[in-house]
Amino acid sequence: MLSVRGLTKSFGAKRVLDGVDLDLATGESLVVIGGSGTGKSVLLRCILGLETPDAGTILWQGAPLAQRRAEFMDHFGMLFQNAALFDSLPVWRNVAFRLLRTMPKAHARRIALEKLARVGLGPEVADLHPAELSGGMRKRAGLARAIAADPKVIFFDEPTTGLDPIRAAAINMLIRDIVDETGATAITITHDMSSVRSIADRVALLDRGRLRWQGTVDEMDRAGDDYLADFIAGRARPMAWGPG
Ligand SMILES: Nc1ncnc2c1ncn2[C@@H]1O[C@H](COP(=O)(O)OP(=O)(O)OP(=O)(O)O)[C@@H](O)[C@H]1O
């Protein structure tokens, strides 16, 4: 359903993406891993049309995504790093933000409460403001917002950043369950190997602007790629990969 071909993007003299090819089937959950500054966010931003690639194509359902951007965005949801909620709005209005453009307030609120319940937040949370929530609750509210309009494609940007391991595991489980339930196609970018193991059908390792390796989680553990093995184990090789 989503194909990236030869995606290239430089900032000044620095080539951040250097011919990335990627295919994503409907309902598949792809997790993109890679060291800091390897271009994971730039890849997502190019797919979203927030950056203009220097070269390459992005196809959605077989047609250039750039020509169908509005339709794509109607079917798209995103969990932002640090949840990115609007501080001035109560939680339910954050969740219902897109719905409020197309439906009466009472209906949008009812859906927001359903989505909040789906991510484990009760109705008592609906009228609180984001500042009154813990980090884990903010992530859950961000997740409720991401799924509010029943998206077919969901991006998760570093979903466990800032959470303790137990709350991170809960968010990972919730994401996997939601992806399974909804049949949504998902791309997650993360450094967190627990997210990879919980969420991924397929893993792609981005390194110096290229996809260095991709495969299933099982294949990842047997891959025989030194950098991938170091990444999985959280192992540093002095001077091997630059200051990144
Ligand atoms: N708008 C921009 N202008 C200039 N350089 C940029 C811009 N956006 C990204 N970069 C550079 O592109 C490189 C890749 O950035 P990107 O944010 O995609 O990394 P990342 O893999 O998501 O890293 P992290 O895991 O640390 O978030 C970095 O060196 C960054 O400084």
Automatic annotation (TrEMBL):
Q: Which residues form the ABC transporter domain?
A: 2-233
Give a single Pfam family match: ABC_tran
Give the domain of life: Bacteria
Q: What is this protein called?
A: ATP-binding cassette domain-containing protein
| Annotated InterPro entries | AAA+_ATPase, ABC_transporter-like_ATP-bd, ABC_transporter-like_CS, P-loop_NTPase
Q: Tell me the GO molecular function terms.
A: ATP binding
Q: Note the Gene3D superfamilies from the entry.
A: P-loop containing nucleotide triphosphate hydrolases
Is Nuclease among this UniProt entry's keywords?
A: no
The UniProt keyword set, sorted, is: ATP-binding, Nucleotide-binding, Transport
